[in-house]
Specification:
The complex is a heterotrimer of chains A (about 180), B (about 375) and C (about 375).
Chain A lengths: L1 H14 L23 E3 L1 E2 L4 E2 L6 H5 L5 E7 L1 H4 L7 E9 L8 H5 L5 E3 L14 E2 L1 H15 L4 H10 L9 H8 L1
Antiparallel strand pairs in A: 1-6, 2-3, 4-5, 5-7
Chain B lengths: L14 E5 L11 E7 L2 E8 L7 H5 L4 H9 L6 H16 L5 H30 L4 H20 L8 E2 L2 E2 L7 H24 L2 H7 L7 H7 L4 H4 L7 H4 L12 E4 L4 H25 L18 E9 L2 E9 L7 E5 L1 H6 L2 H5 L4 H11 L3 H5 L1
Antiparallel strand pairs in B: 1-2, 2-3, 4-5, 7-8, 8-9
Chain C lengths: L2 H36 L15 H11 L10 H18 L17 H9 L2 H11 L3 H32 L4 H6 L6 H4 L1 H15 L24 H25 L13 H25 L5 H29 L3 H22 L10 E4 L10
Helix pairs in contact in C: 1-10, 1-11, 3-4, 3-5, 3-10, 5-6, 6-9, 6-12, 9-10, 9-12, 10-11, 12-13
The chains are: A alpha+beta (about 180), B alpha+beta (about 375), C mainly alpha (about 375).
Chain lengths: ~180, ~375, ~375
């Protein structure tokens, strides 16, 4: 009965250990930096407009085709305040269909869409997760606040200061992959 | 006399028992129609296809970069291994080279995924036999591995990390320290589950000598992976046709003797330990460098076909890719290991008890997402 | 009996009924918390502080559930089966003393009465299985009957060993004779036999092939829902408490504790309850650790191992009593048999002296291989 007795000792030893439970919803498990939550749109604080120009590259490459977008002429460009000629007019992501693959983030040329840390999106009605532009921008601003996100050029400028050979976030490599 | 048949034995009737698609112990939606005589199974009819999602057809309508997300979801427990086989297939077709650092990262993550998959197996196998604690320990360790995946790839399960030409991004700065701590905890966790379950006399009584299959029959059914290695056949794609950087590591492959359920279980426990050995060596040997070969997003491989196989936790996954030069493949055929392992179920289950049927099905370690695609 | 004695009797029975209900509620909570802690998780935490209102929540849920009957059930058997399982478990408690003077009706043939009545609940299980008109239920019911009947014999023989030592079937006398040394120290083999046979009688892991299993889900109770199922559930927990109390009374000294006076009722009750809960925690500990045995392995364990061991137990007790040897001789004989049988099991299963590995590591010789 040696094996049996050893088994009893194992369960006795785990009895005295601290349980590994996180008491949700009071305690949340900490989220890693790179966690890919639902996609959100970024807001350009310098010019006060979204980064997104409505070019629809992400819409084309989404494997589940969960996004739609419409583009319009940018009024701020006519005023000379912005370098973006076109801007997004309406944008909808059906977050219930998104598979969180982050392909939209990889293909975007304008750093406009990012995977936030949102993951708790339960709704009462069936298609309530169809999120439109204002809500996406609001979630994006919250994400920018929380994570201190910077667009690619600024991140690259900071990264160039770091010594060679370190593991740098390779957004520039994927940007090269697209070009 | 009433009740006796022509041989003077008690006249019994065979009962049909349906272990239906919804059942606590068939791993996924799998239906088995059993004809039982008392407690012994006389005949059985397996029904699959409840999880068919048309993956192979869907692949024909997606770009190569998008197909990686589909392969994530085939065998939804060993995601990174699936992605790796597909990416190797496309790279072979296109003649792409993968940078060394990317190869090492791929190997580390794939072996870590193997440990996670085998942990899930040992937990669910304990539940099939009736022990309710090993699964809790296994999932506690699996949670640590998934946190590691989240730190590196961004997702706990459907990673979409191994890309054609390398990996999506480099590992974070504190990767070696975190991996060292994780590997120490995993070794302790595996030893603990081993001490609890593997040599418990009751567990041995439940699994030794149950579901024996000999080597020739196993090879005839096309079994592969740990289920085949438990029969004594030393076949492992990592050793027979070393791919990626597996030929630089020093590891052994566990081989069983008897081909019964206990051997199939213990081969996987030992494989976990060998995977940890590989990861330790890879962490030491990992060079610096870039992590992806720059290439276009919309790949157009040249016309041709390629078959690539890799060692998944469940067996040998094969991907047959036919390209006609377009940006979407002409045909993607997947040879799933669980499908071929499952075909031996009729041979294995005839003449056993119903209680053994559950244990044998559990020891084959099938995932219905792969069987049905 | 005059009116006063009848009143006293009724109030005692009511007291036992209430006490048992409270005990059962506490056992459900204790089991879930204890198992949770062994599995490195918390048990119930949300229903009341530390989950203490969880049994109340369970009870309300079970009472409020719809009682679904299929049209093919045998109505009479379906309704009588829970009673046939439940009533004998309560009848046992008429003669189990929890302190020296606290018992409803102490009988000279107390142990005989207890064993006779505990066998009656088997009929209820078979009725439940048959009446449900469900193949799974029938299978489960027959398995249950076979298992319970075969494990009655080692149980009875283990009790017989104690009766021989105490020279009486009166439970109060059995406990008072353990004043100097408990019977577990004299007859460890008897304790182990009683415990294992008791686990099998209860239908607890590792012998829980007939109730909640991953193959025949629910066994004979699969068609019972709501309040009906609650009765079976209650009966199982009362039985658990009964077997634990019998273990304590027969082998562990009942309400006696060295240094404490044996005739103070409140203290006796406290000691008795503490000891019984310790035994119940061991039952839960075993549940959390082991897988379950298959039905034929269970039966062969019962008939081929436990019954011969039980007979050996009776024989060595008889030898000890006949020759008038000192107590420790019986201890040595018992322990020796236990060790030999345990070692024999380990040898047979190839886990002793070292575990036998049929899985070996194979490192192929390095040779020129095709690149993948």
């Amino acid at each position: 009965m040696l094996g049996n007795l050893k088994g009893l000792m194992v369960t006795l030893s785990t009895f005295f250990r601290h349980p590994v439970t996180y008491q949700y919803p009071d305690e949340h498990k900490p989220i890693e930096d790179r966690y890919m939550g639902f996609p959100v749109l970024m807001w350009d604080k310098n010019v006060e407009e979204p980064y997104c120009t409505g070019c629809m590259v992400c819409v084309r490459y989404c494997p589940t085709q969960c996004m739609t977008a419409v583009m319009k002429d940018n009024p701020l460009h006519a005023d000379g305040k912005s370098t973006r000629r076109k801007i997004v007019d309406s944008f909808e992501i059906n977050l219930g269909r998104c598979i969180l693959c982050a392909i939209c983030v990889d293909v975007c040329n304008f750093d406009a869409i990012e995977m936030s840390h949102e993951h708790e999106l339960s709704k009462y009605a069936r298609n309530d997760n169809r999120t439109n532009l204002p809500k996406l921008l609001e979630m994006g601003k919250a994400y920018q606040q929380e994570s201190g996100w910077k667009p690619e050029k600024e991140a690259k400028a900071e990264a160039d200061v770091k010594p060679v050979g370190s593991s740098v976030e390779t957004k520039e490599e994927t940007a090269e992959a697209e070009s | 006399m009433v009740g006796l048949n022509t041989e003077g034995q008690l006249d019994t009737v065979q009962m049909m028992v349906n272990m239906g698609p919804q059942h606590p112990s068939t791993h996924g939606v799998f239906r088995m129609v059993l004809w039982v005589d008392g407690e012994r199974i006389v005949d059985l009819e397996p029904h699959i296809g409840y999880l068919h999602r048309g993956s192979e057809k869907l692949c024909e309508g997606e770009l190569y970069a998008q197909i990686v997300t589909l392969f994530d979801r085939l065998d939804y427990i060993s995601n990174l291994n699936n992605e790796m086989v597909f990416c190797r297939a496309v790279e072979k077709l296109m003649g792409l080279d993968v940078p060394e650092r990317a190869e090492y990262i791929r190997v580390i993550l794939c072996e870590l995924n193997r440990v996670a998959s085998h942990l899930l197996f040992s937990g669910t196998f304990g539940i099939d036999a009736g022990a309710m604690t090993p699964i809790m320990y296994a999932f506690r360790d699996r949670e640590k591995i998934q946190t590691m995946f989240e730190a590196v790839t961004g997702a706990r399960m459907m990673h979409n990390y191994i890309r054609i030409g390398g990996v999506k991004s480099d590992v974070p700065d504190d990767f070696p320290q975190r991996m060292g701590a994780l590997l120490r905890e995993l070794k302790q966790g595996i030893d603990e589950t081993d001490r609890l379950l593997s040599f418990s006399e009751i567990f041995l009584a439940r699994t030794k000598g149950i579901g024996v299959i000999d080597a020739e029959t196993a090879i005839a059914y096309g079994m592969s992976g740990p289920s085949l290695r438990a029969c004594g056949v030393p076949m492992d794609v990592r050793k027979d046709e070393p791919y990626s950087v597996y030929d630089r590591f020093d590891f052994g492959i566990p081989i069983g003797e008897k081909g019964d359920s206990w051997d199939r279980y213990y081969v996987r426990v030992e494989e976990m330990r060998q995977s940890i050995r590989i990861i330790e060596q890879a962490l030491e040997q990992m060079p610096d460098g870039i992590t992806i070969t720059p290439s276009r997003l919309v790949l157009r491989p040249p016309q041709g076909e390629v078959y690539v196989r890799g060692e998944n936790p469940r067996g040998e996954l094969g991907v047959y890719l036919v390209s006609n030069g377009a940006d979407k493949p002409y045909r993607v055929k997947v040879r799933p290991p669980s499908f071929c392992n499952l075909m031996a179920i009729k041979e294995l289950l005839k003449g056993t008890y119903i209680a053994d049927a559950v244990v044998i099905l559990g020891s084959l370690d099938i995932v219905l997402g792969e069987v049905d695609r | 009996m005059n009116a006063l004695e009848t009143l006293m009797l009724l109030s005692k029975m009511l007291g036992v009924l209430t006490g048992l209900s409270v005990v059962v509620l506490s056992l459900t909570w204790l089991e879930r918390k204890f198992l949770g802690r062994m599995q490195m998780r918390m048990g119930p935490t949300r229903t009341g502080p530390y989950g203490l209102l969880q049994p109340v929540a369970d009870a309300i849920k079970l009472m409020a559930k719809e009682d679904l009957l299929s049209s093919w059930v045998d109505r009479v058997a379906y309704w009588v089966a829970p009673l046939a399982v439940f009533v004998p478990t309560f009848m046992i408690w008429v003669t189990i003393p929890i302190a020296r003077d606290l018992v409803i009706q102490n009988m000279d043939m107390g142990l005989f009465y207890i064993i006779a009545f505990s066998v009656l609940s088997i009929v209820g299980l078979v009725m439940a299985g048959w009446a449900s008109s469900n193949k799974y239920a029938v299978l489960g019911g027959f398995r249950a009957a076979a298992q319970l009947i075969s494990y009655e014999i080692p149980l009875i023989l283990a009790v017989l060993g104690v009766v021989m030592l105490a020279q009486s079937m009166n439970l109060q006398e059995v406990v008072s004779k353990q004043g100097t040394v408990i019977y577990a120290a004299i007859q460890p083999l008897g304790l182990v036999l009683f415990f294992i046979a008791g686990l099998a009688e209860l239908g607890r892991t590792p012998f829980d092939i007939h109730p909640a299993e991953s193959e025949v889900v629910g066994g004979p109770f699969v068609e019972y829902s709501g309040a009906h199922w609650a009765v079976f559930f209650l009966a199982e927990y009362i039985n658990t408490f009964a077997i634990a109390s019998l273990t304590v009374l027969l082998f562990l000294g009942g309400w006696l504790f060295p240094g404490l006076p044996g005739d103070v009722s409140a203290l006796g009750v406290l000691v008795f309850l503490v000891k019984t809960y310790m035994v119940i925690l061991v039952i839960f500990w075993v549940r959390g650790t082991y897988p379950r045995l298959r039905i034929d392995q269970l039966m062969s364990l019962g008939w081929k191992v436990l019954v011969p061991l039980a007979f050996v137990n009776v024989i060595i007790t008889a030898v000890y009593m006949f020759y008038g040897w000192p107590d420790w001789s019986l201890t040595i004989m018992s322990t020796a048999i236990l060790v030999v049988v345990g070692w024999g099991f380990s040898r047979r299963m190839r886990t002793a002296p070292t575990p036998e590995y049929t899985v070996k590591l194979y490192v192929p010789a390095p040779e020129a291989s095709n690149a993948g």
